[in-house]
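Hey,

Quick one before I head out. I ran the complex with KG4 overnight. Inputs first:
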Amino acid sequence: MNILAFESSCDETAAAVVRDGRTVLSDVIASQADMHTIYGGVVPEIASRKHVEAIAGLADAALEQAGLGKGDVDAVAVTYGPGLIGALLVGVNFAKAAAYGLGVPLIPVHHVRGHISANYIAHPDLEPPFVCLCVSGGTTLIVDVRDYTEMEVLGATRDDAAGECFDKVARVLGIGYPGGAPMDRLAQGGDDKRYSFPRVHVHDAPLDLSFSGLKTAAINLIHNAEQKGETLDLPSLAASFAAAVSDMLVPRVMEAARRWGYGKIAVAGGVAANSRIRGDLERACAASGDRLYLPPLSLCGDNGAMIGCQAYYEYRAGHMAGMDLNAYANREIGVG
Ligand code: KG4
């Protein structure tokens, strides 16, 4: 089954053709990051307009790269939430028109379920159940992936997403947008104990997370140093910051894995590219005996292939949409 999939939930327009869930025939992406860098973050209206310009060309490119024609498409899939509403609406409307025109089923895909699916593409042996740490610019969740389309949130951030914190601190440091990757590069060779940052625990909710205090602590440290004319050791600041993020994420996902007992941990989303978090998880899993599934860096960020992969499992579960499909800025992962 060939699924033509679209992703437009934030600042990347992406299209892909995925066969039978796990074989990626094509995966094309148009990033708008350069445009949003000027403003230090995503400007929603610009993002929507760029999706409008790019999406039809990407559909053609995805089919061409796959060596397929329009008649070879068996279903169309699209991210319908969560994300920026204007950006999502572009993808949803285009996918509806494509499914309508081609006379094929339309499959709605939850963005974070898509991120989890990136692991199925990277690891052909991976099957549910497993515990997944989903960390991106908009979400930080620990999820019980009971089955391909059956999921429950075990822990969630009460405020900012981890990626958002990397982005905000990078913006204050003036090292670019999105800030996670530049922060990661800056941290290499830094002393992770040089600066002391808070590790927050949520009372009575041991698997929940909170990052806003850490973000504020880092930004205050930078502003105070500026006011006093002090020079900060930036690699050590970035390394100490990454250590604090990782210290909040890794023990919680290990605790979830211990309690749920599947012996398998996956990681998903843009922040899954972070070298400190990957290293800490590798060490923790080596000690616990859990099998760790990390997506390659190319599949951590937003892409169309992950949507096409998850769409196959949604289709098999009978989850299809009518022509009245809408987009949702917020959508529970368990609802699908
Ligand atoms: O999954 P994604 O592409 O988009 C969302 O669905 O949100 O994630 C983007 C986020 C951004 O916050 C970006 O700064 C972060 O992933 N990110 C990283 C790294 N690479 C990307 N954060 C930490 N370390 C990285 N190496």
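The two ends are 21 Å apart (CA to CA).

Talk tomorrow,
K.
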